[in-house]
Amino acid sequence: MVSASVKDVAALAGVSVGTVSNVLNRPEKVSGEVTARVQAAIDKLGFVRNDAARQLRAGMSHSVGLVVLDAANPFFTELARGAEDRAAAEHFTVLVGNSNEDAGREAAYLDLFEQQRVRGVLLSPVGNVIPRLEQMRRRGIPTVLVDRQADNPSFSSVAVDDLAGGEMAVAHLLSTGRRRIAFVGGPEGIRQVADRLAGARKAMETAPDATLEVISTESLTVLSGRAAGEAIRLRPAAERPDAIFAANDLLAVGVLQGLMLMGGVPVPDEIALIGYDDIEFAAAAVVPLSSIRQPSALIGSTALELLLREASSEAGFVPRQVVFPPELVVRASTRA
Amino acid sequence: MVSASVKDVAALAGVSVGTVSNVLNRPEKVSGEVTARVQAAIDKLGFVRNDAARQLRAGMSHSVGLVVLDAANPFFTELARGAEDRAAAEHFTVLVGNSNEDAGREAAYLDLFEQQRVRGVLLSPVGNVIPRLEQMRRRGIPTVLVDRQADNPSFSSVAVDDLAGGEMAVAHLLSTGRRRIAFVGGPEGIRQVADRLAGARKAMETAPDATLEVISTESLTVLSGRAAGEAIRLRPAAERPDAIFAANDLLAVGVLQGLMLMGGVPVPDEIALIGYDDIEFAAAAVVPLSSIRQPSALIGSTALELLLREASSEAGFVPRQVVFPPELVVRASTRA
DNA sequence: CCCTTTCATTGAAACGAATCAAAACTGTGA
DNA sequence: TCACAGTTTTGATTCGTTTCAATGAAAGGG
User: Fold this and answer.
1) Most-buried pick from A187, B153, B156, B297 (CB within 10 A)?
2) Is the dihedral of CA A326, A332, A334, A336 positive or negative?
3) Do domains A62-160+296-324 and A162-294+329-334 have the same CATH topology?
4) If pLDDT is split at 50, 70 and 90, which confidence band does A316 have?
């Protein structure tokens, strides 16, 4: 029942283990006759290489880790796809962990990845992990931050300019005549949320007659959004905002559900709504959602490329902060 | 730069490697004074256990593999979450692979998982992998099929009765007076698709005056659905179906988009639409989608439990085919 | 026919952690 | 002081693969 090893293969084929290894790794070094005999033995025994042993010998794995804030968010699945495709091209595997916006789970995944001796880590951080990442780098495991710009210039990052994106979203709302803006998002400890809000505040400066209300949520999920939407719907009409900027599309979808429950508040007539990420479902929502598009797969593939470059460069690697521009996508939810 | 090993820790602490190992794995066997010295050395050197070495020694990993048809489908992310939660409780890790409905990628992931000596595999199969799975079982790696019932009674599976679900969906359409039904889905090689269609056919038998048209798609994605929806929209009105059953919600969302483009065909007035899976976005669609709900997280956790049980039972394990009942969820898209 | 070169093949050593029988302690009672 | 029973600690061995210096055999040159 226990699986066959090179030793068994070697014995059956009547060669040494070194030769079996050569057949596996440097077939050009081995004569045709021997190769055939070894192959036959491999097939007969159902030999499968033991990755743990290879890795132990090699000292490093052929994997990289990826920790995302929310594996159910299509933005991150797209990002992961981009990273995986790029990794596959280099014969690397991506191990995906879901921190669920929880610093504890994030740390647990980093532990795991260190124990696996991954080549590097792509991270969309929750807590303040910079000290931890510096420690990991000292141990030879580099990190590239994804979906948020590194404030520490010694780290590479691939992100979209969330400040500009937030500004863009609110400027758009203002340009359609809205004045009582609400920002729905949280927790503020998450950098993307903070930046998008900061961008929103910046846009507000251009309209002194407009007001910005901040409505905090527990997480960036449809459920949190629905709760926020319902709370707004239940307010007296006069106290409702006339436009909502949601920190991501999941929230926006939830807000929309919350607002429309029981023939509620019409969107965009009474309240305009814009999200962030432009996930595939945004266009398919009850009221097609305006959003700020991020090139998710491109972020993933670019980050992976930077990571592998940093991992393989002996020294003198210069970290890069790649910033893609966000793009406003206007749909029915913000039409006048 | 290369990381420290137990040997280094032992040297610094002035003890043997065996003692370091004991501190790590059986702290109760080691005196307080020594434990403290070893801990200090571990911290000082930044020692991190090498998983490859542990695994090699142990002979088996602490992971299970999961191969899904489409990692971007919320149904599967939910299923994965269920499996991961259950696995975490048993101190196991889940490695997720995305076959993307491609038999080649599926096989590649199975290869990878075998090399990693995973404890077992959860699989939502594309091709005919049964022979392969039997081979893996002989090598000590059991499989549990997810989201489709095993036709081979020697395999465990956790699924929803897709035949009943398909029947339920079409029976519902018929009960609202629809008569020209279309099934949108594919490829038919995927068992879930075939079963849901078979269920649809079964329901048709109760209504001799109704017709069922099958519209094949390349894949179970929003994009494929949109193409199908557009094709239907472009037909002369008389040749359009009056109800559509989409093989999953992603398709349904796409069909909806395709139908409604350029102020197209009204749903449900002219065409009713029902999907399958009841993903979170179904309720949030332009026209909230009726659907057949599957308990996705429960499928994942149940499958993981069966898998671990099979993996740890010496012999005489009796495979089980768990079948959950589907549930009809009626929303606006099929209202008369 | 011997010497050199080339080439395929060998086999021991390494990777890092876990195990476990044996050794080294400790303290107790005689 | 010694025997004995516990308790700690030791260190050689194991896991499966890769690597690489060494070996052997065959081919080519003089």
Assistant:
1) B156
2) positive
3) yes
4) confident
Q: Check residue A218 and report its DSSP letter.
A: S
For residue A314, the model assigns a pLDDT of: 65
What are the chain B neighbours of A61 within 8 Å (beta carbons)? 52
User: Which nucleotide in the DNA or RNA is closest to residue B52, CA to C1'?
Assistant: C16
Q: Which residue of B has its CA nearest to A314?
A: B1
DSSP classification of residue A205: T
Q: Write out which nucleotides of chain D lie closer than 7 A to a protein Cβ.
A: 8-12, 14-21
For D9, nearest residue by CA–C1' is B19
Is pTM beyond 0.90? Reply is: yes
User: What span, in angstroms and rounded, lies between the C-alpha atoms of B115 and B109?
Assistant: 10
**Does the beta carbon of A84 lie under 8 angstroms from any beta carbon of chain B?**
yes
Cβ neighbors of A42 (< 8 A, separation 6 or more) are: A9
Note whether B124 contacts A: Cβ–Cβ < 8 A.
Answer: no
Mean pLDDT, range B64-75, rounded to an integer: 96
**Third-level CATH fold of A62-160+296-324:** Rossmann fold (3.40.50)
Domain B162-294+329-334: which CATH number of 2.40.128.110, 3.40.190.10, 3.40.50.2300, 3.10.105.10: 3.40.50.2300
Predicted pLDDT at B264: 81
Q: How many degrees, rounded to 5, is the angle at CA A28 between CA A25 and CA A34? A: 85
